[in-house]
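ligand=glutamic acid
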Amino acid sequence: MPKVVTRFAPSPTGFLHIGGARTALYNWLFARHHGGDFLLRIEDTDRKRSTEPAITAILKGMKWLELDWDGDAISQFERAGRHKEVAEELLAEGKAYRCFATPEELTAAREAARERGENFRGDLWRDRDPKEAPEGTPYSIRIRMPRQGETTITDEVQGAVTVQNSELDDMILLRSDGTPTYMLAVVVDDHDMGITHIIRGDDHLNNAFRQYQVYAAMGWHIPTFAHIPLIHGPDGKKLSKRHGALGVDAYEEMGFLPEAMRNYLLRLGWSHGDDEIISTDEAITWFDLEHVGRSPARFDFDKLDSLNAHYLRTMDAKSLLSSIKFALEDHIGRALDSVEEARLLKALPSLAERAKRLPDLTESASLFCNTRPLSLTDNAAKQLTEDIIPTLAGLADELEAVTDWEPTVIKAAIMSFAEAKDLKLGKVMQPVRAAVTGGKPSGDLVETLAILGQAETIGRLRDRVAA
Ligand code: GLU
């Protein structure tokens, strides 16, 4: 097989949405699996709808997902000259023709075809002599579609799909203002870029038959097509914003990790036995088009959450810290100091056990920052009643005397204090947790105190006494 070359070809009319991200991922994986190239082409031919912020958002989303492309991103618009050249070549060979019809004539012909119950083929000038048009009449260039026979595409996902050629219209290749249509530009670019496999959403399957005829007319090699079923919402309906049809940036903001996102998008339409957790390396080794499902996948936030929780658990303390540092500093309104960082490096792995998304982790990590006096949740405030204050004051004194701030020693000190005061251990632990965490989700209490350090722990207890 020649070197595999795939591409992702987004139209920059909005953010990189979840379906686009999955298409990009499949193309990336297929290229990486075969040791080929993965190219990025920005389909900015539609000047009215393409925007610079959308291009930026797409590139940013790709980078966040760590889907690196080979070479520079290509602008389709900048290749307009080449598209025109191909249209003119087809014209010169008689495989395309000039259409002088006015918009009004076309509308009338479309209407008439509809009334006759026929497909509109835009072929008003297919058999007319261009000399019949007055000098200087603007014209578009249309492809001369075959009328006989049928076209079959053997799609890697959909199987063999056939249309009757009589159903294909003589589509415009070059508009009367000299600009290429999308249908022409895609084919010329895919050919010139040496694309061997076109993997994209099955909303493009109908276009594939029309594009096929452009390749055929030029005598170009026809790439392999793989049209992937679209993503649906959990209710089986077309994916809407409510379901999660958001930009990739929204998932980043919600606190999902790129590796979890890749794993999730991979499984959303492709399978490897019963495997749910698939690392990117495994995905590169295993990815193929054969196991792309034929029916639409359903988007499911719970699955994404559980994958994200899994990847959070596998991260080491340093990576966990760097993934929340920015948000945490934003939360406390200043940079972390070295004491806080050292505490976090100790605490994060066990905090990550209970987090689903990064904001959960940021929230529980903030407990280890010096933010005295802590603000209390309602629940914590309820536990810190007047009568418990002397207990906290007494325990603070007891802890002050501890010389070796280790979990076992801390625990022994609390136990002996409870015993001396004739209190059940829980009666002491509960308010201590409320005073020291302010009611934030926390793990093992003694472990938390050990990581917080002696001075901070006692300080937090005394804050409640003074309050
Ligand atoms: N630009 C098209 C889109 O964003 C994709 C074209 C293609 O993949 O062939 O839907």
